[in-house]
Amino acid sequence: MTSTTVVHKPVRWGRVALHVGCLLALLVMLYPLAWLLATSLKPADEVIASLNLLPSHLEWSNYATALDGVNDVSIWRLLGNSLLIAGGAVLGNVISCSLAAYAFARLRFRFRGPLFAFMIATIMLPHHAVLIPQYIIFNQLGLVNTYWPLILPKFLATEAFFVFLIVQFMRSLPRELEEAARIDGCGPFRSFFQVVLPLTRPALITTAIFTFIWTWNDFFTQLIYLFDPEKFTLTLALRSFVDASSTSAFGPMFALSVIALLPIVLFFLAFQRFLVEGMASSGLKG
């Protein structure tokens, strides 16, 4: 007759404390989102006056008012405007930044090092420092109150951060692939489009995700260039709720905030796997 001895592993209190601390940090980070969702369902008199997280009763009319739009502009028009600007910015950054990154990472030309250093230095330049010169240029071209000032700069590789990210990724690719393509008669452009670009997909998707989120949430630049309510985005529509009805529209404003948040969450969830892969392999590890 054999007896089995049960060995109890000692409790690792350090690991338990780490997990508890992570859960507390998660609750702190998720609280603003929970507050936003709860406030979007609060009656108008509880949005500002009540400190309770949960509403006394669910006010679904806030979402009905938000879906009606603002300034006689439907929410679908606002959503389409936001998607147009964000989609154009994503397309412009992916195309222009990948071309610029290929030049810095693979091609040999005079003053490549100083030009790359100058490009990296522009990351430290505040956006507001170039906003006034850009506005003057677009105003003289007659492009103010159009979407071109929000989309056209993206096609000129003005986002140095994404150029740097893609450069770091391309430098990790083996040069033997391009040398083999060159032996087969491929020039620089064909090597870029058929060899390098498909392998750079994780970095390109990372660029697309960050560009989409930053452009979608952009308020100040859109406020400067867009005047016509028909051209407003969801971000500008949130401000219009407060201007139109003051405190009585806070409930619909938070409801519209939840609606405006959904495309970002869905876009991120769809491509988060590529985001982690791109950040891990582009020299931006934490």
Features of the shown structure:
single chain
Fold blueprint:
Elements (H helix, E strand, L loop, with lengths): L12 H27 L4 H6 L11 H7 L7 H32 L5 H10 L5 H14 L7 H4 L8 H12 L4 H8 L4 H12 L1 H17 L2 H6 L8 H12 L4 H31 L6
Helix pairs in contact: 3-14, 4-8, 4-11, 9-10, 11-14, 13-14
Subcellular location: Cell membrane
Keywords: Cell membrane, Membrane, Transmembrane, Transmembrane helix, Transport
Family: Belongs to the binding-protein-dependent transport system permease family.
Short description:
This protein is an all-alpha fold. It is 69% helix and 0% strand.
Verbal overview:
- With 286 residues, the chain is an all-alpha fold.
- Helix content is 69%, strand content 0%.
- It has 14 helices and no strands.
- It has helices spanning 13-39, 44-49, 61-67, 75-106, 112-121, 127-140, 148-151, 160-171, 176-183, 188-199, 201-217, 220-225, 234-245, 250-280.
- It is globular, with a radius of gyration of 25 Å.
- The mean pLDDT is 83.
- The chain crosses the membrane at residues 16-38, 83-104, 116-138, 150-170, 191-216, 249-271.
How far apart are the first and last residues' alpha carbons, in Å?
56 Å
Strand content: under 5%
Largest sheet: none
C-alpha Rg, in Å?
25 Å
Q: Please tally the helical runs, counting DSSP H or I stretches of 4 or more residues.
A: 14
* Number of strand segments: 0
Q: How helical, in percent, are the residues?
A: 55-70%
Low-confidence stretches: none
Shape label: globular
What order do the helices and strands follow? Answer: HHHHHHHHHHHHHH
Secondary-structure-based class equals: mainly alpha
Question: Would you tell me the overall average pLDDT?
Answer: 83
Organism: Streptomyces tibetensis
Family: Belongs to the binding-protein-dependent transport system permease family.
Subcellular location: Cell membrane
Membrane topology: Multi-pass membrane protein
